[in-house]
Amino acid sequence: MALVVHSLASGSSGNSILVKDGDTAVLIDAGIGIRRLTAAMMRAEVNPKDLSGIVITHEHADHIAGAVRMARRFGIPIIANAPTLDRIDGASEVPHNILAANEEMALGDFLIRPFSISHDAACPVGYSIHSSCATLVSATDTGILTPEIRAEALRADLIILESNHDEDMLIKGPYPWYLKRRIAGEKGHISNDAASSLLLDLAETGRPVSVWLAHLSKTNNTPALALATAQYTLWSCLGTTMDISVALRDVPSLWWRQTDRPFQLSFYYSKQV
Ligand SMILES: [Zn+2]
Ligand SMILES: [Zn+2]
Prior knowledge:
- The protein is an alpha/beta fold and 273 residues long.
- Helix content is 29%, strand content 27%.
- Residues 58, 60, 119, 121, 141 line the site of one zinc ion.
């Protein structure tokens, strides 16, 4: 068995992560259009009708744009907590299941646990997905690193962690003041420096973990800057580096681990979705 994770899109123009192990496949969010989503999934050799569900982090458009149409077209359930489902137009008319924050649900061969994050949405969550061979933790769209994020991160084999903005670029950048305040606030998005502080904690445990920096701002960050901030912080504080990649906005990335070989690989595939 192998846990295979594809980031199909990442950032404020759309987010979706495909997670697969054996016959079980789920999407975390479906924040791009159904045609683009379907094409990306077929390229990843997963037929959308074989999904066990679409788990939703929160109701912002960049996370749900294709969710209801996917559920209707392929008869797959949207899975979210009740306050989030209530905010998604049409969710009550398609297959759906309620999964409250901090409860667990078995979905095929996965055990899925949503955990609390801090964001300006009805009831936003991140997700831990445990398969037989690895644990994925996804934590994006959060203004602070909640205790739950820190606790889940310590168990991850792959963590998809928000690294939204460079603080200087945000402050000096073109956004209006109210938007800068929202992004930098406790219910906004975490910066490169905040992401790096969690990576320091993870590096100190000595436990191997792969990292994808995700949900990067197009205006207030660059993939190179996010990556450099993380590695520079690790190197200057602990004299070490980690296996860190960036989940790009439009270019899918792939990670996988197989049970019989402790082998992992992280790379981008260059075809546009
Ligand atoms: Zn978002
Ligand atoms: Zn959001």
